Structure formats: C-alpha cells, structure tokens
User: Fold these one by one.
Assistant:
Number 1:
Amino acid sequence: MSGIIDISNIANSYIPVAIILIVALLMPPLTMFLVKTLSPRSKSSAKYTTYEAGSLPKGSARIQFNVEYYLYAIAFVLFDIAVLFLYPWAAIFKGHDITEIATIEMSVFIFIVLFGYVYLVKKEALKWMK
C-alpha cells in the first residue's frame, strides 16, 4: 500500500531538529550560569566607574551626532546585501549553464543597485563633509 504514511520515518527525521532545539534552548542559560560561577568578581569601587582604565570622563555623555552617519550605515548595508546576492549567482554562473531569464533577472537587480548608487551620488550622500 503506497498510501500508508510511515510515522517512524517522519519521527526519525525530526530527531536531529529536536536535539538542536534542546541544545539551543539550554546553551544560553548554562553559559550564563558558568560565567557567573567561574569568573572572578571584583567588589572595588573602581569596577563601577565609567572607564576601568582609570580615565575620568569629561563633559556630558549627551552629544549631538551628525545624522549623515546613519545614511552611510544604511548605504553600506544595502550594498553589502547586494554583494551577498551577487556572489552565489556568480558562482553558479561560472560553473553551470544559466538560462537567459536568470541573466535578465540579475541584470535588473544590478540596474536597481546601480540606480540606488547614482541616487546617493546625486544627493551627495557619500561625501564625508559638505
């Protein structure tokens, strides 16, 4: 009978997933417990200062940051993710036959990334200081 589902095969295929789940749930509390019990503790007042090296903080911690730094970070993440998508495609393209549709799709993706780059250049978002 081909319509019968073998429950034991299904259960055996989920055993590795269950083991990984159990280990993933047990490792963080176990690691925190080991660090708390085995690491040396210092009760000196110098331990609770801002800098343990002995430097005294000067001025307020509330300073204004330039908002442009966030734009640099976002641009970096976007182009980094673009490379993340391009690398596997290029590796497959080098070793195997790729259809024209995949090449067109990647060309559209590269066009969108380049459009974003041109937009950043036109907005002068990549200049360090204005």
Number 2:
Amino acid sequence: MLLRHSPTSPFARKARVAAAILDIPLELEAADTLDPNDSLRQQNPLGKIPALLTGDGEVLFDSSVILAYLDHLAGDGRILPTEPAARITVLRREALVDGMMDAGILILYEARFRPQEKHEPRWLEHQAGKRLRAIDALETEVEPYSGTPNVGDIALACALGWFDFRFAGDWRADHPKLVAWFDAFSAAHPQFADSAPVA
C-alpha cells in the first residue's frame, strides 16, 4: 500500500504511526498539495493528505478513515474498539484532536499564505481559541497512558508532537498531565520517533 503524505503533516503521521503499531507495511510517497500537476488531485479530489492507495484501485482519505481501514486489516478492535460505547468514546477523542490540529493548521496557513499586513486578527484568535480550549479539555480528561493505543491516542500523540514542531511546545507549560501522557506514549512506542516531522 502507498501513502501519499508530507513529512510534516500530523494527519499523515497518524497513518504512519498506526501502521507501525499494527505492523502493516506502508510505502511512502511525498505529495505536494499545492502543485496542480501532482497526481494527488486525481487520487483525492480534495487534494489533501494523507491519501492511502490500497493496491486494489481504491484510494482512502482522510486520516480517520485510513486508521479505521488499517484496524480492519489488522483484525478489527486493535486500535478502534468494537464495543459501541468504547468506540464512540475513542472516536470522540479523535474528532476533538483532529479539530484541534485543523485549527493549528489554519493558523499556520494564515501566516504562510497571507502577508503580515493582511492577517485577520479575529480569524487567528478564533482558531487559537479552538486550539487552546481543546488542549485544556484534554488536560482535564486525559488518564495516565495505559500502553494500549487507540485511534484517539495516536491522534493526540501526533498533535502534541506537531505542536512541539510548529508552535515551539507552547502547550507544555500549563498542561502537565498531557506532558506526562505524551512522554509515556513516546516511551511505549519507540517507532513513534521514526515519523517525527522534519522541516
């Protein structure tokens, strides 16, 4: 299977980490989401990463769908619980974290694609508020890491790692439970370091 990705994308990292935890080999191919000639736009009409080419002609996106598919390949229930209540809890965590990452990416894009004098402070404050509220909520609800990962855990680890990379670890000072959780996840899964974002 081939994963179209970027080495800095936290969403692509979710797929890479899940595949590593599940011992599912993935071939990696970088994609340029801004290049109209990149085949990504034919593979995923949204032109977004990650996109997983399964080998049988199917292309899967976004990251939550890819993780569900990888769990299915691994035998169901490995990283996505099959019991309904547990499944909903884990999917809720994944959705919260994905939204938090979306907000961070929009903040980054405002700086990347618009000149400083055209930045919209209200828009940036709106996105920053989403990110901070999500981090604060996760700080209150996170439990010590059990060592058995699920899709919510994988998403959270990738988000916190990306916030270290793009936001200089600004979440750490006021969120000691998340710091401890992140350190425990990283120690329990050495392969997590293999997918660390690079500039």
